Each structure stands twice: as C-alpha cells, then as structure tokens.
Input
Amino acid sequence: MTKLNLSSIKDRFVIEGKDYIFLCPSNKIYEGKGYQFLFDDDLDKQLAVFRRQGRLYCLSNICPHRHQDKIYDGIIDDMKISCPEHGWTYSLETGKNVNPLQGLRSLRKYEIIEKEGKIYIEYPKFDIPKWRENI
Ligand code: FES
Output
C-alpha cells in the first residue's frame, strides 16, 4: 500500500479543465498487477491502479458490495477485474459492474495518465459513506 497526503502533493497540472496530481513514478506500476493507494490516512479514500496491455486504469479500491478495500487484489481477466471477496466483476476501463446478476453498483473510475516517466490521476473525489456524514 502506498500512502499519500492529498494536500501535500505539489506536482500537479490542469488539462482541459481537469486537475491532475502526481501519483507515483511509472516504473512502480507493473503489467498485470494491482496497486493500492490510500489518501490522508482515511480508509474511505482509496484507489486501485492497474496496468493492463500497457495501459493504465484507476478505479475506486472499495467494492460497493460489502465495502471491502480489496479491488487492487482482484483477479484480472481480459479487461475485467473481479473482487477477491465475493467475485463482483467490473470493467477495468469504466468501473461498471459487468454482471447485473451479482449487483448493480459500480466502481468510480478516475482518469489516469502517464507523462515523462510519471503517473498522474485526476484529483480524486471519494464516495464517503452516508453514515459518516454526521460524525
Ligand atoms: S466485497 Fe467485493 S464482491 Fe463482496
């Protein structure tokens, strides 16, 4: 797991109105493996990053089925990722649930780009559970 503090990331830029922030060097993300990123030491702020057939994908790391933070450790099959807990399956490219028989909820997808040996993601908005709103 890589821990980052959103407010301390200084390497950032804007493309077409979208704010991108530095995530990690390109050589930290290997083909066919998932990586877990935690922001602000908040377990509800997590991303999963994958490189598949040379391209990068970034999704929420928290499965909407039982709120488990295991998407990074899922099984990659073709362009799909299956949660290792109970097998809900999502598109790597869109985060959409690809098996409506399992459930209808999807993963949030984030833009991710590689530039000059570095990986950047769009400034992430996280889905914070409703039960936390009153805390
Ligand atoms: S927690 Fe992911 S499928 Fe159940």
User: Anything to note?
Assistant: The mean pLDDT is 95. The pocket of FE2/S2 (inorganic) cluster is lined by residues 63, 65-66, 68, 83, 85-88 (CB under 6 Å). The chain is about 0% helix and 40% strand.
